[in-house]
Every structure is written in C-alpha cells, then in structure tokens.
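Quick one - inputs below.
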Amino acid sequence: MLDYSILIEHWDMYMQGFANTLKASVLALIGSFAIGTVMAVFRIAPIRPLNWIGAAYVEFIRNIPLILIVFVFFVGLPAIGIRFDSFTAGTLGLTVYTAAFIAEVIRAGILAVPKGQMEAARSSGLTYLQAMWYVILPQAVKIVIPPMGNQFINLVKNSSVLGVIAGLDLMYFGDLISSETFVTFDVYIFVALFYLLLTIPLSLGVGALERRLAKSR
Amino acid sequence: MIYFHQVNKHYGDFHVLKDINLTIEQGEVVVIIGPSGSGKSTLVRCINRLETITSGELIVDGVKVNDKNTDINKLRRNIGMVFQHFNLYPHKTVLQNITLAPMKVLGVPEKEAKETAMYYLEKVGIPDKANAYPTALSGGQQQRVAIARGLAMKPKIMLFDEPTSALDPETIGEVLDVMKTLAREGMTMVVVTHEMGFAREVADRIVFMDQGRILEEAPPEQFFANPREERARLFLSRILNH
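Output:
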C-alpha cells in the first residue's frame, strides 16, 4: 500500500512542484508553438536564406539531447555573462527544443493544405504573410491537431528535465522529498500521479478538440 | 489592357508557351479554347503572375508583370481570378470568404465590406448562403461565391480558369449565367473553357491554342463556322459531334 502520509506531510512541496511544472509547460507550450510556427514558415517561404535558417534550426536542435540544450541556458550562456535562474533556463531550453518538433508538425500541416488555397489568397492581392496567417495556417493547425497533441504531452513530460538543474518542478521536489525521507517508491509514484493529472486531461482535451473541429469542416 | 509580346515559358525542358502575341482590350471577353495540355491555363495564370514567364513582354493594366520593381500585390487587386476547383477557404463562411481581401488588402471597414459582399451575393443569386460554410454548398453555388469573392475587389479584369469543368452538368448553367451577366456589363474577361455554347454566345474573340501556340484568333461566328486552321477544325469536330 502507498504511504499517503508522505503526500500529506509534503503536500506544499508537491503543490509547488506541480505549479511550477504546470507553469513551465504552459510557457514552453506557447513559446514553442510560436517559434515552431515561424520556423515552419521559414522552411517553406519562397526565400532561400529563410529556408536555410529554418532547416538548420530544426536539424540542429532536434538532433541534440534536451538536457544539453537546457545546459546551454543554464551554464553556457552564463559563461558569457547572460544569466537565468534555473527555472527560466530550463523553460527556455524546453521551449527551444520542443519548437523544432512543432516546426516539423506544422510544416507537414502547411504542405497538406491544397495548393489552390495559397493561389486563391495570393491572387486576391494578399501578401504571402497575410495568406499564411489568414488562410493557410488556420487550416494547417487543424490538420495537425493529433500529432500536435503528442508534442504537447511530450513537452509536459520533458519538463522533468528541470529537476536536473534544480528548476523547482515536480521532479526536483520529488528528489528532494525522497532524499529527506529516504522513501523512494512511494514518493515517485505520487510524482507520476501529478504528471498524469496534467497529461491525461491534455490528452482528452486534444481528442475533444479534434472531434469538434472534425464536425465543423 | 493585357498585352503579350513574344512571350515564352518553359517548365524545365518543357516549352509550355511559344511566342505568344495577344492583345486584349478593355471590356473585351476573350475565350481561350484548345485541347488539354495546350497551355491555355498557363497563359491565363501568367496574367496575374501565378506563373512567371521565361522571356518576352507581358503588360497588364499598364504594368510590366514580371518586372522586379512591380508590386505584384497591387496589380493583383485589379485582377479577379476564378479557379476550376473554386478554392474557397473552407474554414471561413461565405461572407468571410468574400470580405477577407477587401478588408485586409484594401483596408475597407468590416461593415462596408459586408455590405459589398452581400451586394455581390445578391448578384450571383445566393444571398441566403452568406453564413454557410463552403462545404454546405453545391459546386455551382461554391463557384458563384468564388465569382462574388473576385468581384468584391472591384477588379478591372476577371480571369476564369475552366470555371465549370469541375461542376456537375446541372449546375453549369447557373455559373455561366452569372458570367454572361458580367460580360454584358462590360467586364474585361479572359476565360478558359470547354463550354462552346458560352464561347459562341458571349465571346468577342476566340483564341485557339495547341501545343503552346496560339494557332487562331477570330470572332466566334467566324471561328465556329469556318475555322482557318486544320487543327482547330479537328478540335471542333471532336468536341461538337460526340
């Protein structure tokens, strides 16, 4: 049986960790969605140098372990005088890393929108960016909701990387509680449950969104 | 209004348009016909630079289309385009489809854009569909919305790229009727179509293309009664007597 006294006695720590994991996830979700969208458009826009920037971003970032990208913000940039607290460094690393995957998802979505949509939009006098923003991206995002949901769930779980750099998230407090109480199994089971508290509603939410949008088409 | 001089276009090794010379005056309705793969659509798509030309000169509304100083978005405001597959925006209502460009390109206030949109929806005969999504409409209705969308920019030229080819036969007539009205009102129109009845009735001039060349240009009475070119004769006999 699980030892619930651990949960009750360390409730504040669990809550603080949960709140920070939630906060890091939401910030990284918004940030990576924005950067990912920009990089996806870079890869597709009819301007060569932008294509290179987009491709370089995706290929470099997604082929490096997340923890190393977090280290760039945690120890790399401070070495040249740019400092962050560990929560910020972790969240930035997570954002930059996830953006590479989201860029690929959105790019696939953009390519799945029929070519005639861009032609119709451009021939009405809209600029490339206007056509992207008003016509292509809304359709692309709709198409990629299922894979996007996967990325967001990964993001929440990957936020546990903050634990490694004392980022005050769930994982960090789990480690802390464990080392204070010398209990391992039960402590981490509760940590896992808190992650599920975030990821399962996210999963269900994505599913519901998918069904709703499927109806509206 | 539209002036092609010695225009050539290549897709890699494929020579799509060969030495095209064509002048279209304001208010003229020019119908381009010819077998598939003859370059008709490409020719029309060059006019608003959906396709770029390889060589030659193309001037539309006094502007060199392929000059690198040309603001293509500005030129495109004056050129409406209707596509074979309608290309309505599926995530927007009929009204939003029509108001998007006037609001974002011309900066027309929303209220005015909606009024204009309703005016053109009346004109194409489906004001009751203003708040429907395109998927709820028949092909003919969708194409009429697409025409209204083009007209809402108050263009000087309308391009039609096989506007009825994707329609089921029952709805072709309603689209052609709208186009006929437009032609009578003096719109400059360039139409790629296989609808010979429409061409005969509405066109000021028929342009016959084959293998990337303009083979014949003539008023419809003359073209249909007595085509000069052997290839045009063959084409007509095949599509008229089946």
